[in-house]
Amino acid sequence: QVQLVESGGGLVHSGASLRLSCAASGRTFSTYALGWFRQAPGKERECVAAISGNGGRAYYPDSVKGRFTISRDNAKYTVYLQMNSVKPEDTAVYYCAAARVLSSSIYFDRPGLYNYWGQGTQVTVSS
User: Fold this and answer.
1) Closest-CA residue to 33 (of 99, 113, 115)
2) Which residue, among 36, 91, 30, 33, has the nearest Cα to 60 in the 3D structure?
3) How far apart (Å, rounded) are the C-alpha atoms in residues 38 and 53?
4) Which of 35, 56, 83, 95 gives the lowest tally of CB atoms within 10 Å of its CB?
């Protein structure tokens, strides 16, 4: 069982930077692929970043590529999302998620493949 708690959301102006953190409880953190997802009102939940268990592979959709960076500290049981040059369309509730994997090089970009979810943190970007 893994519990995830996000922090770092808030209200920022367009072009600013923000770092989200997600602290995990449980054991064998490195055996979990991790992802950051967001969901805006009336829209489906989408993956904005994912990272493999060993941190060696990462995924970003085109909408955030070059602006967002996911990283993990397995010793601290924490995953981060660095958000730079944010835009109003980045406004959403951001969730971190964990998926137990058999290989440390695997990551997932589909929300249905994740087993555990945090409660979410609101990010609002004003223009």
Assistant:
1) 99
2) 36
3) 21
4) 56
pLDDT tens-digit map of 37-84: 999 999 999 999 999 999 999 999 999 999 999 999 999 999 999 999
List the structure tokens of 89.
């369309």
Strand-strand pairing, 78-83 and 18-25: antiparallel
CB count, 10 Å around CB of 87?
14
Calpha distance 22→4 (Å, rounded): 6
Contact 32, 2 (CB under 8 A): yes
Phi/psi of residue 31, each to 5°? -90, 10
